[in-house]
Write a structure and sequence with these properties.
Layout: E1 13-15, H1 20-30, E2 35-39, E3 42-47, E4 73-74, H2 79-89, E5 93-98, E6 101-107, H3 108-115, H4 124-127, E7 135-136, H5 141-151, E8 155-160, E9 163-169, H6 170-181, H7 189-198, E10 211-213, H8 218-228, E11 232-236, E12 246-249, H9 250-257, E13 266-270, H10 280-292, E14 299-313, E15 316-327, E16 330-339, H11 341-378
Parallel strand pairs: 1-2, 4-5, 7-8, 10-11, 13-14
Antiparallel strand pairs: 2-3, 5-6, 8-9, 11-12, 14-15, 15-16
């Protein structure tokens, strides 16, 4: 299936010289997943709702100062390759080209709708994310924004004494800020921003929270997301829907679409633009080299995520690297920080290997105990 079969020529577009206030208005009234930005008719990038969370950005700021890159997609590109591009760029929308001309746009929702019938072979437990960042209902919105940025996520489950009570998302925060700013005079804008950052998450959270379980099919979970315009669902244990076991998002499903059946390990890289001296192939080879030390562990998929901090050393940014492997023995992860992608990847890979050793030791102990019990049973 070519991406042209599911792309649309009806998409939101704005000129780089427009004011940010116009962008906020488009997001509020039309609810696009992203806006294509052009300058003199030429594509320059996209702008999404997350960018509106940057503090102290005034309505008269020009759009060009907020533009982020997104991959150009050709009409003849396949669905799997486009899904990979969207995941690696962190974009929800990408421009579709016909030759040198901007022809349309593709969204993650369009891809998921196109492959929906093929998702009933997967369960939520196959692809959900177990590591979840949570907050309490009295956490200030400013702290929530910092956590969303720091971890590169779009939603934070809210807990009360360990129980799930609500959810706050980038959309909730942006929507509240836009509505609140419209009630203020221009001279009051700075004070209004401070007030928004100080209010508790409870005031803007969504409740009740849409949930799923590890046993539910991905098809059913995605149908619920598409029908209700949810970007993700909280995963709860089957026997207790008030506890948080993980999260599944549309991006998790897109990532699953990029899995391959090739002989070599499939590697997914988020924020690939941060790579300096590293290449995708080198990352794959170094992870494979680690996995090869443990013959019984077969890596089916590797997800490597880079995140750049503001701190630098002699011009080189401090980067956080997170590595998560999906193997025939379950999931294993490691993370680390360093100056430059190569350094941070090395630290994360070292921690990943230590984690594999720990798991190997635990399983060896379990096997030994099992053998001992069987021998005792034979006496």
């Amino acid at each position: 299936m070519d991406i042209a079969d599911i792309a649309t020529t009806d998409y939101a577009e704005i000129d780089a010289d427009e004011r940010l206030g116009k962008v906020r208005s488009v997001f509020e009234h039309d609810r696009p997943k992203g806006i294509v930005v052009t300058e003199d008719g030429e594509y320059t990038g996209i702008i999404n709702e997350k960018q509106l969370l940057q503090s102290h950005i005034q309505d008269d700021t020009k759009v060009r100062g907020m533009v982020r890159s997104a991959p150009k997609v050709d009409r003849t590109d396949g669905v799997r390759e486009v899904a990979r591009m969207l995941v690696e760029s962190g974009a929800k929308i990408a421009p579709v080209y016909e030759g040198e001309n901007l022809w349309g746009a593709i969204t993650e929702e369009a891809i998921l709708e196109a492959v929906l019938e093929n998702l009933d072979t997967l369960s939520v437990g196959d692809i959900y994310t177990e590591d979840v960042v949570t907050v309490t209902d009295d956490t200030p919105v400013g702290r929530c924004i910092n956590l969303l940025r720091e971890h590169g996520v779009s939603r934070l489950p809210i807990l009360d004494d360990g129980d799930l009570t609500g959810m706050v998302t980038t959309h909730d925060i942006a929507d509240f800020a836009v509505r609140d700013m419209e009630r203020q005079q221009k001279g009051d804008r700075s004070g209004d921003i401070d007030r928004v950052l100080d209010i508790p998450a409870y005031d803007i959270m969504s409740s009740p929270v849409a949930t799923t379980t590890t046993e539910e099919s991905v098809k059913t979970a995605v149908e619920r997301m598409l029908d209700n315009d949810y970007a993700g669902l909280v995963v709860t244990p089957t026997d207790n829907d008030s506890k948080v076991a993980g999260i599944i998002t549309k991006t998790d499903v897109l990532r699953a679409l990029t899995y391959t059946e090739e002989d070599h390990m499939d590697v997914q890289i988020t924020n690939i633009k941060l790579l300096d001296t590293l290449s995708r192939e080198e990352i794959r080879e170094r992870i494979q080299s680690t996995a090869d030390k443990y013959q019984k562990m077969q890596v089916q998929h590797a997800h490597v995520r880079f995140h750049k901090h503001k701190e630098t050393l002699r011009g080189t940014p401090l980067i956080q690297c997170q590595i998560r492997l999906r193997t025939n023995k379950g999931q294993v992860a490691g993370s680390g920080e360093g100056y430059g992608a190569d350094n941070s990847f090395g630290v994360a890979l070292d921690k990943l290997e230590r984690r594999v050793l720990e798991l190997k030791g635990v399983r060896a102990d379990e096997e030994y105990r099992g053998q001992l019990l069987r021998k005792l049973g034979d006496l």
